Amino acid sequence: MKFGHFDDDAREYVITTPKTPLPWINYLGNQEFFSLISNTCGGYSFCKDAKLLRITRYRYNNIPYDNNGKYFYIKDGNTIWNPGWQPTKTALDEYECRHGLGYSKFKGVKNGVEANVLTFVPMNDRCEISRIKVKNTTSLTKELKLFSYVEWCLWNADDDERNFQRNLSTGEVEVIGSSIFHKTEYRERRNHFAVYSVNTEVDGFDTSRESFLGPYNGNDTPDVVTEGKCTNSVASGWSPVAVHQLNVTLEPGEEKSFVFVLGYIENDENDKWEAPNVIKKDLAWEMLDRYKTDEQVDKAFAVLCDYWTNLLSKYHVKSSNDKVDRMVNIWNQYQCMVTFNMSRSASYYESGIGRGMGFRDSCQDLLGFVHLIPDRARARIIDIASTQFEDGSAYHQYQPLTKKGNADIGSGFNDDPLWLIAGTSAYIRETGDDSILDEMVPFDNDESKATPLMNHLKRSFDYIVNHKGPHKLPLIGRADWNDCLNLNCFSAHPGESFQTFGPSEGPVAESVFIAGMFVKYGEEYAQLCDLKGDAKEAEYARAQVQEMYDAVLKDGWDGEWFIRAYDAYSHKVGSKECEEGQIFIEPQGFCVLAGIGVKEGLAQKAMESVKEKLDTKYGIMILQPAYTKYHLELGEVSSYPPGYKENAGIFCHNNPWVSIAETVLGDGDRAFEIYKKTCPAYIEDISEIHCTEPYVYSQMVAGKDAKFFGQGKNSWLTGTAAWTFTDISQYILGVYPTLNGLQINPCVPDGFGDFDLDRTYRGVNYHIHVSNPSNVQKGVSSMTVDGKAVEGNVIPFDSSAKDVTVNVVMG
After folding, report:
1. From the centroid of its chain, how far is CA 568?
2. pLDDT digits over 303-338, tens only?
3. Of the four listed, 85, 199, 223, 742, which is most buried by Cβ atoms within 10 Å?
């Protein structure tokens, strides 16, 4: 069942009913100011940091779901409605939401009044623009009353929802004309405030939530809107809001437009002034002056649209498969931008409070983002590396505003160090900029301990070398990629208290998954050593990689698949010897994509086992059989009900690993089959089952053991976005950036046909045509570059070229 449709020409998803299975959201903003907005106008805004600089308030885990947003109420006689349906939920004669790239549009029609709302964050400005156009389509004059509504958050979103004894006395606002200023904490911080303004004179306002709603009402039935008149309340403490009232007369056929701007203003911290409670409004007036007219708004919107057109042109495919083209050219890359900006911090499943930027997460996000804006990728790598410790381990998360590691979460996730090599390697392969390796980067943000980034990568590599267990496999620490596989948490004897052992004390657990990572990214580290002319270090690295390769074959193979790990007792996890959890997806995908067992014939067996034991119609499950009882020695993984999350759920994040592994083996049919099962464009028709947005990837889908098999959760902010784009763009379509140039090596399904691909790489525009006259799944028989035949399948890089024509014949 569909609840909308794709409009590929407009690059929009069109939602045709407000009653979607879950709120279907969009992200606005690309730099510092961000908003989340749902298909019914729910959501919130923040600047830089969703925890520390939250501008508007949102209520998670509330009834009804998706509670609080930026609303417009229209009062037409006794009828009150919203263009986005919520919060009044008045039945509309027409409804439409169009989520586009960095903007959303809403259309509501009721009783001959049509309201169209365009909401977006302009480029390089700290504000959100919402333009509402109201039109009278009847033959009678309409006397309407239009009310805006936002509720201010008191900046620190965590403190805002807990520290009521203080916060209910701190709210401060100031109203000047049509501008409502939120200056809570300004006397304390003296450097920032927010404003909500409209580009016309108002007929009233309210800034007290109680005055606007009434003491016992929700935002579905505000007293002020019901009565049709604002109270001009000025909040002092309690819960400040921003409400404008506009009395609108529309003659038959007449349309009027109003521009609302929600802005964040930050003064120079060194700017001191005498009156601490008097906000400096000059910057606010300058911002509001930029968006006073429809012409100004249209121009800003055009700049945003052009920005995305230029950005997406860097990788663009034209094939006979419209779903592939749709996802590759628009939605997958768009989601990669969002995950780069947000990491895992702020979504409808992440509150923006608990998690900041993830070390592992952000490194993986780079894989799908680095081709879009390399300079931002470079800066992110430096930020991430700055949270690393001198021994090569790292804070698992850091806050985007302060760039400081999250001490509450700490470190000990032993896959983290290798992801830094992965992200840095991806950046250098994309850009050729090896100067980043000489960039001085601190440990733990202590500038006195700054060292070249290359040294950080060596510490990452050596951390694994120096932290191995009895099988010469990497120690897992607190966990590896699977945060819930806590193998060093156990009770040694019945009746003893629960204990947690660190990576170097007590019994130690080992990870075959990290071993697979080490083989892949250890070789990429060695290649960077070659690039820097350090032959001795490259030789050392490859020797260590070979030792790990051998250790996996010796103690990481279970006969038909790779085992997952050894627990703290050196018992196998993910083995046929186990009663539950006999096979896990992670080592199958990553060991094979790293090349382990390919020449020995083991990789093919592992892939066959995945298909036989883990595959479902909705994707590949993370493990089987599901855990039906709690295993203290395994930690959180067995605490979930069977079929959900890490306990046999379908983790979309690591499905691409198996798809890539199949391309390594040359099986294009199977690689593409796996790709399609989690790809939004291919499962749009089952939205009533899948529930999450049909235009972006979800983190997980309920597995076959779950009651709601096939139901998605945790959409948008997931490594699935970057890894799936890596899978389809670099392995299936086969345009892979190497240190020496673009490698063309597609692995496509039977009947995929010819395709054309434009790829911008290191400032050169490549126009690639791939023909497949023999309908093979993998293999390149010939390649010409600007009409000249070249050996192999790597395009020699020529920095002096501007446009290069490449013809590839598979065979």
Report:
1. 34
2. 999 999 999 999 999 999 999 999 999 999 999 999
3. 742
- State yes or no: cis peptide before 87, omega within 30 of 0: yes
Question: Is 633 within 8 Å of 565 (Cβ atoms)?
Answer: no
Distance CA 216, CA 133 (A): 32
Catalytic residues: 483
Q: What are the residues whose beta carbons fall under 8 Å from the beta carbon of 546, sequence distance 6 or more?
A: none
DSSP state for residue 459 in the 8-state scheme: H
Q: Which two tokens stand for residue 270?
A: 């060194």
Spatial separation of the C-alpha atoms in residues 509 and 580, rounded to whole Å: 18
Other C-beta atoms within 10 Å of 354: how many?
14
The two most distant CA atoms of the chain are separated, in Å, by: 85
Burial of 1 per CB tally in 10 Å (0-12, 13-18, 19+): exposed
Query: 600: which residues sit within 8 A by CB, 6+ positions away?
Result: 553
This prediction's pTM = 0.96
Nearest to 110 by CA among 65, 73, 64: 73
Q: How far apart are CA 396 and CA 468, in angstroms?
A: 20
Task: Render pLDDT for 409-439 as a digit per residue (tens, 0 to 9).
Answer: 888 999 999 999 999 999 999 999 999 999 9
Residue with tokens 């607190």: 478
Tokens 């939205």 locate to 687
Closest CA to 725 of 754, 759, 702, 683: 759
User: Are 212 and 149 within 8 A, CB to CB?
Assistant: yes
Cα 599 to Cα 585, 602, 664, 753: the distances in Å are: 21, 8, 11, 29
With 0-12 CB in 10 A as exposed, 13-18 as middle and 19+ as buried, what is 792?
Answer: exposed
Inter-residue contact 147 to 221 (CB < 8 Å): no
**C-alpha closest to that of 585 among 617, 607, 616, 558:** 607
List of domains in the chain: 4-309 (2.70.98.40), 343-466 (no CATH), 506-610 (no CATH), 735-810 (2.60.420.10)
pLDDT in tens, 17-31: 999 999 999 999 999
Q: Which is nearest to 397 in space by CA: 364, 357, 350?
A: 357
